[in-house]
Amino acid sequence: MKKIFLTRSLVIAGVILTWFPILATLITAVFASIIERSFLFDFLMPAELGVFAILGTSLLLWAAIRLKSMIKPIAWSLALMIILLFGSQALAVATGLATGERPSSDAMFYVVMGMLMMYSVILILPAILGTRLLRQAFKTDTSGG
After folding, report:
1. How far apart are CA 28 and CA 132, in angstroms?
2. What is the rounded CA–CA span in Å between residue 145 and residue 132?
3. What's the rounded Cα separation, in Å, for the pair 130 and 31?
4. What is the dihedral sign for C-alpha 141, 124, 19, 91?
């Protein structure tokens, strides 16, 4: 019983933390757009809240290992999220984009923005997989404990 309780807790926390950057971005976009009467969308917010997504996906990976299910896709998405998020930041710092030394019209700017967009798209995968894992965790037989 303790084993399934921990696994379910990991999945619940992981799902909440992984969905948080996505939902926060969408909710603030809707409210800001209504208030300002103009479409506003902070496309950098998922990256700014990346620590939640990485922590949540890590918890989902732990739960997936315990459930012996969806390990590879969650592990790959976590690895790609870390590489793209920290890689884009490192590239921005290394090239001078982060400090403004290099113009934002430079080709490297588009590489960094592309990495951030790919990070945001990949973030959706563990959120969806986590939701599927949540269903699976609650279908698991509790008598085997």
Report:
1. 26
2. 21
3. 27
4. positive
- pLDDT tens by residue, 19-44: 999 999 999 999 999 999 999 988 89
Largest Cα separation within the chain, whole Å, is 62
Angle in degrees, CA 45, 74, 5, rounded to 5: 100
Q: How far apart are CA 71 and CA 136, in angstroms?
A: 13
Q: Per-residue DSSP letters for 3-56?
A: HHHHHHHHHHHHHHHHHHHHHHHHHHHHHHHHHHTS----TTHHHHTHHHHHHH
Q: Is pLDDT above 60 for 130?
A: yes
Of the candidates 74, 79, 70, 83, which has an alpha carbon nearest to the alpha carbon of residue 127? 74
Q: What CA–CA distance (Å, rounded) separates 105 from 119?
A: 21
Read off the DSSP letter of residue 87.
H
